[in-house]
Amino acid sequence: MNIDTFRDYCLAKKGVTEGLPFGPDNLVLKVMGKMFSIVSLDEVPLRANLKCDPERAIELREEYEDNILPGYHMNKQHWNTLVLDGRLDPKLVFELIDHSYELVVNGLTAKLKKELEDL
């Protein structure tokens, strides 16, 4: 998967913004100001950090040990790094983006959830 496909999929979600707060090599995607993905733009192959349920994170790392790793520079219990070298099915990548987005949305305050709903 390339950066354009990944980025476009994320930006199509409600309430998502992008930025480069950690410098030009790390694209951060947020929903209502809360981070749900960081993409390392300088990595070949492309790497993306996504939030994940801790139990599911372990299962994914075991099943896809070469392409789903503990989150680089993140809380390894709650974040995975996906190596997007073409070996992961795009459907799985989109599912994991959705999962990360939903985890963050579910953790939003009631006020932010209402603002997101009203968008």
Automatic annotation (TrEMBL):
> Which UniProt key words apply to this protein?
DNA-binding
Named from the GO MF annotations, one term is: DNA binding
Source organism superkingdom: Bacteria
Q: Does the keyword DNA-binding apply?
A: yes
* This protein's name: Putative DNA-binding protein (MmcQ/YjbR family)
